[in-house]
């Protein structure tokens, strides 16, 4: 029996990349739940490193001290634990749950800079590859199909209109009681799109073998219906 199979069911790696606030995590989480797969939000990992930098003095008043942050990497232990209330995993740094704190605008404003540091990427990519070794995983990010799992059996590239993405993030943050304007979010999303595409290390690129999903006008359930036949084929192959 192949190591990627258990109980006769084939397990695959599903890599999901795309722009920020494109609905990747929501889609990936539901897909993983339905398949009984592990879901890993790699953006949360870059956010966790950013939060640590803010809380430990490597990021102050919007300025990032790269060397200081790189010097802290050995002190940052990132893990995920399943939260039955959310039916999803929360992210922990050194045993402390930071799932809510990493979503704040202070982290969002600095995370692109942090994710452009090669030493940070190397560290997190290695951890992501370890997590996917056993397959049966859905991972979302920017470089999953290109760098983390170039051999993933299924690669998706998710896109949506920037205005739709900003509105989604706005609603999400409003629910959490964050006081930010739609304009602020739109600006943050545009800046991050540019940063993500133009950074030197692992820029956001679509893998040549990725399938595009533009979900601007699709509900989550419609996206699940769209993926069903593709999945069926991949799991049979
Ligand atoms: O998906 P997100 O918005 O939570 O991601 C936060 C930031 O992390 C985003 O600006 C891009 C970066 N990121 C990355 O560089 N590589 C990944 N695999 C995931 C996220």
Secondary structure layout:
Elements: E1 5-6, E2 9-10, E3 13-18, H1 24-35, E4 38-41, H2 42-55, E5 59-60, E6 63-64, H3 66-72, E7 78-83, E8 88-93, E9 96-97, H4 105-115, H5 118-131, E10 137-141, H6 144-148, E11 154-159, H7 162-175, H8 182-198, E12 211-214, H9 220-236
Parallel strand pairs: 3-10, 3-11, 4-10, 11-12
Antiparallel strand pairs: 1-2, 5-6, 7-8, 8-9
Helix pairs in contact: 2-4, 2-5, 4-8, 7-8
2'-deoxycytidine-5'-monophosphate is lined by residues 20, 42-43, 46-47, 111-112, 115, 141-143, 192, 196.
Second-tier CATH architecture: 3-Layer(aba) Sandwich
Low-confidence stretches: 1-6
Total E-strand runs? 12
Shape: globular
The string of secondary-structure elements, in order, is EEEHEHEEHEEEHHEHEHHEH
Structural classification? alpha/beta
Q: Helix segment count?
A: 9
CATH superfamily: P-loop containing nucleotide triphosphate hydrolases
Average pLDDT rating: 92
- Ends apart, CA distance between termini: 15 Å
Number of domains: 1
How much β-strand is present in the residues?
A: 15-25%
What Rg is obtained from the alpha carbons, in whole angstroms?
Answer: 17 Å
Fill in the CATH topology: Rossmann fold
Identify every distinct bound molecule in the structure, by name, code or SMILES. 2'-deoxycytidine-5'-monophosphate
Strand order of the largest sheet: 4-10-3-11-12
Main beta sheet, described?
Answer: 5 strands, parallel
Question: How would you describe this structure to a colleague?
Answer:
By secondary structure, the protein is of the alpha/beta class. It has one domain (11-230): P-loop containing nucleotide triphosphate hydrolases (Rossmann fold). 47% of the residues lie in helices and 20% in strands. The longest helix has 17 residues, at 182-198. The chain is globular. The protein starts with a strand and ends with a helix. It binds 2'-deoxycytidine-5'-monophosphate. Residues 20, 42-43, 46-47, 111-112, 115, 141-143, 192, 196 line the site of 2'-deoxycytidine-5'-monophosphate.
């Amino acid at each position: 029996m192949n190591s990627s199979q258990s109980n006769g069911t084939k397990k695959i790696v599903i890599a999901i990349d795309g722009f920020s606030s494109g609905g990747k995590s929501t889609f990936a989480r539901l897909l993983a739940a339905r398949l009984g797969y592990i879901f890993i939000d790699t953006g949360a990992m870059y956010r966790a490193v950013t939060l640590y930098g803010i809380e430990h003095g490597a990021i102050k008043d919007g300025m990032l001290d790269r060397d200081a942050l790189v010097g802290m990497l050995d002190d940052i232990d990132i893990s995920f634990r399943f939260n039955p209330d959310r039916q999803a995993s929360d992210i922990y740094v050194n045993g402390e749950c930071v799932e809510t704190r990493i979503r704040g605008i202070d982290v969002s404003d600095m995370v692109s800079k942090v994710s452009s540091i090669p030493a940070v990427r190397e560290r997190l990519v290695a951890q992501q590859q370890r997590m996917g070794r056993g397959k049966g995983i859905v991972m979302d990010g920017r470089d999953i199909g290109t760098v983390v799992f170039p051999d993933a059996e299924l690669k998706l590239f998710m896109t949506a209109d920037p205005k739709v993405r900003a509105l989604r993030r706005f609603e999400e943050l409003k629910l959490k009681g964050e006081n930010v304007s739609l304009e602020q979010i739109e600006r943050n999303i545009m800046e991050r799109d540019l940063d993500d595409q133009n950074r030197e290390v692992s820029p956001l690129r679509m893998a040549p073998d990725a399938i595009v999903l533009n979900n601007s006008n699709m509900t989550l359930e419609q996206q699940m219906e769209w993926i069903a036949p593709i999945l069926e084929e991949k799991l049979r192959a």
